[in-house]
Amino acid sequence: MADSEKLRVDKYLWSIRLFKTRSQAADACDKGRVKIVLNNSAMGPQTVKASRNVNLNEVYEIKTEARKWVIKVTGLLTKRVGYPDAIKNYEDITPKEDLDIVKYAPTSFHTGKRLSKIGHPSKKDRRDLETFMDGRPEEDE
Fold first, then answer.
1. Residue 119 lies in a domain
2. pTM score of the predicted model
3. Residue 131 falls within a domain, yes or no?
4. Which residues are CB-neighbours of 105 under 8 A, at least 6 positions away?
5. What is the pLDDT of residue 40?
6. Range of the domain at 30
7. 80-119: per-residue pLDDT in tens?
8. How many structural domains comprise the chain?
C-alpha cells in the first residue's frame, strides 16, 4: 500500500480479521469499543471514529465479544486476507492479565435446547407417575 493512500480504522480491523464484517467493526467504533492509546496523552486511551485513518506504529485497544485486544499496527491492509497473512500486519501486545480473563469464559453456549434428562418427563416416567397417582399397582409381566 502506498503512503499516499488512506485506510479507515473499521476497514483495517475487518481486514486483519478482528471482526467478521466491516459493519461490526464500524459499530464497535461507534459504541466506543475501539480506542487509540496515545503515549503523550495524560487522559489515557481515546475513542476513535470508524472514519479515522490508521498509521503505522499506532496502538489500539479493541474490545470484541470474545476478548480484549491491544494491538500495534505493523502493516496496512486494504483487502481482507487469510489469517496467516493477516497476523503479519499487527502485533498483539495484550497484557497477560487481560488474557487470563478469557480462561474463565463459559465453555458451553446456551442454544435454547433443554439438557438431556432435565425438564419434561419421558413417556415411561409419565406412565409411572400416573400409575402412582391413581393408586393402582403396577402390572409386571
1. no
2. 0.67
3. no
4. 66
5. 67
6. 9-103
7. 999 999 999 999 998 887 776 655 555 555 555 656 667 7
8. 1
